[in-house]
Inverse folding.
């Protein structure tokens, strides 16, 4: 813990999904109680998670102690929390953080006994594709964009499968996979913070909406082109529209333009709509029943 900042790292496999956010949000609440700011430290292939802890680049490491056993040279040098989840996931701190380790255990015990813990836990666990831990944020920011918030949730699942620490080979970060250069333009300081990341993604959607000049189109067509631009870039989609126009196709109809875009982009738009319609149809069926 350096000054007023608490550095944390979550080292869990991709399929952990929303459990990653569960660890992060627990750590954030712990930091708030102790008047610190939580700062996420990502794992890079060149620096193993245990090295981040040992070199003091991170203060708390969330890890599956069954899957990632303690290196022999760290035996006796670390403290391990009680299990955070039933999957063998624990928090680890170096022994020279002894006081803070006791604070962690004490706070976790009290928080798990608090009236709000059950509702908090159910937000993240069990993980499900049909809900995200951040639905409340999506509802808020979806209104600013004028979109059904479930469409944003479908984008989030497509981009990161609800993993707040997701990082792509092209260095896109977080739940909706924003590149750091884009974050600078949007004045987003911490892409690993779920609320900032979601806000940044919605701001970028709004930017595309303003600058692609598609307001004269039917809403579904406008959304198709914005989703495609989010995936492939605004210039590439505009080039595809112009090519479609030159070849006698309608540049305002996605089905005419999509064949000029990368196959991956076509599948991206299709999957987001497929998942969204599946969710909305299921909701309507529940209301009818």
């Amino acid at each position: 813990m350096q000054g007023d900042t608490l550095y944390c790292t979550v080292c869990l496999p991709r399929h952990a999904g929303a459990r990653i956010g569960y660890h992060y949000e627990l750590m954030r609440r712990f930091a708030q109680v102790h008047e610190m700011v939580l700062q996420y430290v990502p794992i890079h292939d060149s620096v193993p998670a245990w090295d981040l802890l040992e070199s003091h680049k991170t203060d708390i490491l969330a890890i599956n102690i069954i899957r990632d056993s303690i290196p022999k040279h760290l035996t006796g040098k670390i403290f391990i929390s009680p299990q955070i989840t039933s999957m063998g996931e624990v928090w680890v701190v170096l022994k020279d953080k002894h006081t803070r380790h006791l604070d962690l255990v004490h706070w976790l015990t009290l928080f798990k006994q608090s009236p709000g813990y059950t509702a908090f836990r159910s937000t993240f666990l069990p993980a499900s594709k049909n809900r995200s831990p951040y639905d409340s944020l999506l509802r808020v920011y979806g209104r600013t964009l004028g979109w059904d918030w479930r469409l944003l949730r479908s984008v989030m699942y497509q981009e990161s499968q609800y993993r707040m620490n997701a990082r792509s080979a092209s260095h896109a970060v977080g739940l909706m996979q924003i590149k750091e250069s884009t974050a600078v333009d949007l004045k987003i300081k911490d892409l690993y913070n779920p609320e900032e990341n979601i806000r940044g993604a919605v701001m970028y959607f709004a930017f595309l909406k303003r600058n692609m000049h598609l307001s004269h189109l039917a809403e579904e067509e406008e959304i198709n082109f914005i989703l495609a631009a989010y995936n492939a870039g605004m210039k590439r989609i505009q080039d595809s529209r112009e090519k479609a126009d030159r070849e006698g196709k309608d540049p305002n109809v996605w089905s005419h333009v999509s064949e000029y875009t990368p196959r991956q982009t076509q599948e991206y738009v299709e999957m987001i709509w497929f998942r969204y319609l599946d969710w909305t149809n299921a909701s309507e069926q529940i209301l009818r029943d």
About this structure: Residues 263-288 form the longest helix (26 residues). The first strand starts at residue 5 and ends at 11. Residues 5-124 form a domain with the D-Maltodextrin-Binding Protein; domain 2 fold (CATH 3.40.190.10). The two ends are 53 Å apart (CA to CA).
